[in-house]
Every structure is written in C-alpha cells, then in structure tokens.
Amino acid sequence: MNIDVNLGARSYPIIIQNNLLENLDEYIKNEVFVVTNTTVNRLYGKYLKKYAKKMVVIKDGEKYKNISTFEYIANQLLAAKIERKDTVVALGGGVVGDIVGYVASSVLRGVNFVQIPTTLLAQVDSSVGGKVAVNTKYGKNLLGAFYQPKCVLIDPNVLQTLPERQIKTGLAEVVKYAFIEKTACDTFDESFTFYDFLSTKDYRQNYENIIARSCQIKADVVSADEHENNLRAILNLGHTLCHALENLTNYKITHGEGVSIGLKFAFDLSLKLGLVGSEYHANAISLLKTLGLKTEIPRGMKADKIIQLMKSDKKVVSGEVNFVLPCGKYDVTRKVLQDELLIKEILP
Predict the structure, then answer these.
(1) What DSSP designation does 320 have?
(2) Domain boundary assignment for the chain
(3) Domain spanning 164-346: which CATH class is it, in words?
(4) CATH number of 2-161
(5) What is the pLDDT of residues 72-125, one digit of tens each?
(6) Closest by alpha carbon to 90, among 151, 9, 46, 156?
(7) Active site residue ranges
C-alpha cells in the first residue's frame, strides 16, 4: 500500500507493507548510515546491518532526545566520512526519527534520510511530514526544522513486539486524526468516517488500515501546508496541554498519554465555549475511554504552572495560548484564548 506526500520536488512515498523489513532489497540499493536505539537494535537491527556503512546506536528514551545526542550522532557520521550524496536511515520510534531527521538536515547542510518507524505513534504520525527536532529544558521540540525524508517504510508486523503502553500511545494520535478528518480532507465522506471505523472495529485486527488512514489524512494536510502556515496547525489538537504535561512530569508520561489527556481537555474547553454539543462531547470522551486511553491530568499538577508552560509552546501568539479546538463533528478550529480563568476552570 502506497501513499504519496505531494510536495513538488520534495514529494515522497509512504510504503506500508507487512514483512517489509525482510524485503528491504527492494528499497535500499546502496550502503546507508543507520541510526537506531538500544531496544530497536536488539529486535530489528539485524535487518539493516547488511546495508549499513555505519550503525550508530543511541540510548532509548525521550530524555535522550536532546542536543547532546544530536552532537553524538553528528560526530559519529562525520567520523565515518559521510558525504552529501549519502543516506541516513532512522530505525526506531518518534525520538529516533525526530533527532535523526534534525541531524540529517544539519550535517553537511543536508543529507538524505529515510524513516523506518517501529512504533505505532511513529508509523501514524511523527515519521510523516518532515518535522524534526530535539527537546530543551524550556520545552519539547523547540530546536528543529522542516526537513522531509526521501521515503517512509512502514512494516506493521513490528507492532507485535511493541508493549501495550506504546500501542496506546500511538492510538491517541490515531484518534486525533478521527477528530480532525473533516477539516483535514477535501474528500471527507460522512457516510463512514474514521471515527465510525475506530468506534466499531477492533484496532488490534486493523493496524494496516489504521496506519494507512492516519497517514493519508496527515499527507493531505502536509501536502496543503508543509510549513504550518495555516491548515497544518490542526495536527496540534491535544498537543498544547500534552507538551506542558510531558515537561512537568519530566517525560514520565508518554507523548500519546499527554495527547489523549489533551484531547479530553480540548473537548471540555470546547463544550464550555459552546463550540460542541454535549452529545458529541460525551461520545468523544467515551471513545477515548473505550480504547483505554488516559483522560485525566496527573494529580499534583498546578494550573498556574501548566498555563505557564503552555505559554512557552511553539503555538503561542503574542504571549497567548493558541489552542486547536473541536467545533463540530470531526471538525476543528484554532482559537487564541486570553481568559486564563476559563482555562483554569477546566484544569485541576
């Protein structure tokens, strides 16, 4: 199954195929530089070794998505005499994909890179669209670039080794796509929506379809607005609160856990503002809970600190928090909220 991200000269395919890792000869023709982490290397590094001019292995975890790891990878590639015509393959989840893409955008002022995502979250979201970055002490993804891969190679079979918590993390991004589908897609079909699909199908039996639909929605958005000047901002539904919670917990909650909590918060805020009705609000929260996703902000979080961190987010406008909020079934809008008291009413 192929999906195209249409960006003119920077266009590339997303290829979704079971057992793809066992058939890489079809896609990798020359020696490449491979970057992965310790966990993924143990499970799947063997599939890339025969293509690798150099294997770079980093530690596993969001806390290593920083400028120190960026420098380590860059130095490893430079020491191995990487050239501009070479390709770097990111084999791993969102952390590996984001940091490797940022390194690829910078080393020699830009080398080719390929994404091979191994988590559900990376397969449905972070590997597509060219947002690459590292975290800083001031917040998540505050150093980065827009830099598109040459292709994204997705093997749904790798999800068999993914812990359940990481599956849930990816499902949060999947549900986000269901909530934005109408706004995102010119070809939106209300007769059977992605929301309906997730509400009626067992996700465990439908990973390939779920990945494909999520990627198609994101590809449509990115193709229309590569650099987030307008439409692409809708992909941030649930993320403003999410990034604040990740920072406050020192990334002890996963990105997807933060997103699902952020989705519930966004629906609560929309209900308060009269942007959505009580029935759609209740159905949306029910879907989150049916899929086993977190919806409650961790105990001990102070509203003032959460708001302070949300104001450090990339999406801030003139010092005010810029939210993406549901405004109807599968439809979202952007809204700058100056009323902190209103926000505090939703926060604990």
Answers:
(1) B
(2) 2-161, 164-346
(3) mainly alpha
(4) 3.40.50.1970
(5) 999 999 999 999 999 999 999 999 999 999 999 999 999 999 999 999 999 999
(6) 151
(7) 109, 131, 173, 218, 228, 232, 236, 239, 243, 255
